[in-house]
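explain this:

___
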Amino acid sequence: MKTTIIPIGNSRGVRIPKAVLEQCHIEKEAVMEVEKGAIVIKPARKESRKDWDADFKQMKKLKEDNLIISDNIDPAMKEWEW
């Protein structure tokens, strides 16, 4: 697909059609890289567990950090494969 480079303030940009963004699963953020002289735009991936530390501290503060299931393991359980 051929496109035109347009001025955006002191920068330059291109318009990406909605259909292309949808096909690439790009919503609000993207990652742009240069690979072998080509501009590559990829969907931004949410970093797994990024804010867990802050979330756990907040849970402790609110006394919501109780175990959901027991952490006691009975080694004599026949269902377990060790």
Summary: The chain is about 20% helix and 20% strand. The helical segments are 18-23, 52-61. The CA atoms of residues 73 and 79 lie 12 Å apart. The longest strand covers residues 30-35.
